[in-house]
């Protein structure tokens, strides 16, 4: 009888651990970044300073039940204010009319400490499907005993798909800004 009780307790404990938890972003340890080629020779890096996300993560399965994010386009920061003002203008994000861009996960396939997250990305009111690689998923208890999860999202989009079409042709071929934009988001979140 004791063996049956122990087995039942182990099953209940395991099922309890398998339940996913909601996590809140630790914005001091999260970065929403991007890279784009300038003049076809160098990368320009930038980030967004105002964002939020809803994360439902299963630490046992290392899998996401849901993930959604909102980014304020006005908060773009490339380190050059004149360039940032241009990126906020109608030529690019048109922040006055489209103050937010969003991502909504549709599916997730886990592969150990990595996976593929598919979802809908909306910029300037245009929604397109994207696939993000999820890397380096790790969980830990912090100094206060809180569960934390960390991971990196990586992907690529064509900015032309979202009507971010400003560009200038270069005299000897090529353009001022590449169509391809690389997305790199480093996330740390604490269990609610």
TrEMBL record:
Keywords: Signal. Pfam families: YceI. Residues 1-20 form the signal peptide. It comes from the Bacteria. SMART domains: YceI. InterPro entries: Lipid/polyisoprenoid-bd_YceI (IPR007372), TTHA0802/YceI-like_sf (IPR036761). Residues 22-190 form the Lipid/polyisoprenoid-binding YceI-like domain. SUPFAM superfamilies: YceI-like. This is YceI-like domain-containing periplasmic protein. It comes from Arcobacter aquimarinus.
